[in-house]
UniProtKB/TrEMBL annotation:
UniProt family annotation: Belongs to the glycosyl hydrolase 46 family.
Broad EC category: hydrolase
Region annotated Disordered, chain positions: 127-154
Source species: Couchioplanes caeruleus subsp. caeruleus
Biased composition (Basic and acidic residues): 130-141
Predominant location: secreted
Active site: 61, 79
Any Gene Ontology biological process: carbohydrate metabolic process
Cellular compartments annotated: Secreted
Keyword Lipoprotein listed: no
Gene Ontology CC annotations of this record: extracellular region
Lineage, top ranks: Bacteria, Bacillati, Actinomycetota, Actinomycetes, Micromonosporales
Domain of life where this protein originates: Bacteria
CDD domains, per the entry: chitosanase_GH46
The protein's name: Chitosanase
Length: 272
């Protein structure tokens, strides 16, 4: 019996696709494979991806996806770092707040925060408010109304945390989710702290740049991140990893594509 019409000459019904050879009169005829075009991965420094990154960090740092509403935020959260403020939690006790106010003062000499520079230098490395109270929080909120101060916050965020983290992610050949994992770790632990976490993860896995599996590597990195977080009572809630980044990873969403549904500190969020 002859093959059904349409199959006898290697033809397929409309919409069908195969990579298997089709026989015609006993002669194998390879049908052309239908291959979907490759879609280039988009890095975290793409503007749309960066916006997503800022929203996820803001959910963890400020319990809100509206990261642009956080320029004026300031409080002492009791984590031993003094005042925490701004869009990524610049701290008076860790040096990044000092560098921010210095950069702002270079751009706008005599601004409302410039008079606090001597005090910020003295309290760096401590949780002290000496020389800052009682009016520093009020003046910080006032400065947040200045576009130059908002620009300074974004510039310092990128210079100190975002740009080097994304650069390292690209070097390790991880995609947007991995680049975000590095960035979020740098925001909490400092860039050098993130590098230390990465160094410990290298004892358990290898990044794609060294021939490793991307998912396996990111699980190893997040495992070490959680260990680091649990060293401090203020950061012992690891939900920003467990019910956010780890969820994306388990779903195979290495490109951090929307929609994203996640939870941080018990609050649920969705980014479309």
């Amino acid at each position: 019996m002859l093959p059904a019409a349409g199959l006898a000459y290697g033809l397929l019904p409309a919409g069908a696709a195969t990579t298997e050879p089709v026989t015609a009169g006993g002669i194998a005829a390879a049908a052309p494979a239908v291959i979907a075009p490759a879609v280039a991965a988009v890095n975290l420094d793409d503007p749309a991806k960066k916006e997503i990154a800022m929203q996820i960090v803001s959910a963890a740092e400020n319990s809100s996806l509206d990261w642009r509403a956080q320029f004026s935020y300031i409080e002492d959260i009791g984590d031993g770092r003094g005042y925490t403020a701004g869009i990524i939690g610049f701290c008076s006790g860790t040096g990044d707040m000092l560098e921010l106010v210095e950069a702002y003062t270079d751009a706008v000499p005599g601004n409302v925060l410039a008079k606090y520079l001597p005090a910020l230098r003295r309290v760096n490395g401590t949780d002290s408010h000496a020389g800052l109270d009682p009016h520093y929080p009020r003046d910080w909120r006032s400065a947040a109304g200045d576009p130059a101060f908002r620009d300074a916050q974004e510039s310092e965020r990128d210079r100190v945390y975002f740009d080097p983290s994304v650069r390292d992610g690209k070097s390790d050949k991880v995609r947007a989710l991995g680049q975000f994992a590095y960035y979020d770790a740098a925001v909490m632990h400092g860039y050098e702290g993130m590098r230390a976490i990465r160094g410990r993860a290298l004892h358990k896995a290898r990044p794609p740049s060294q021939g490793g599996n991307e998912t396996t590597w990111l699980h190893a990195f997040l495992d070490e991140r959680v260990i680091e977080m649990r060293k401090e009572e203020a950061h012992s809630d690891t939900s920003r990893v467990d019910t956010a980044q780890r969820v994306f990873l388990r779903n195979g969403n290495l490109d951090l594509n929307t929609p994203l549904e996640f939870a941080v500190y018990g609050d649920h969020y969705r980014i479309d």
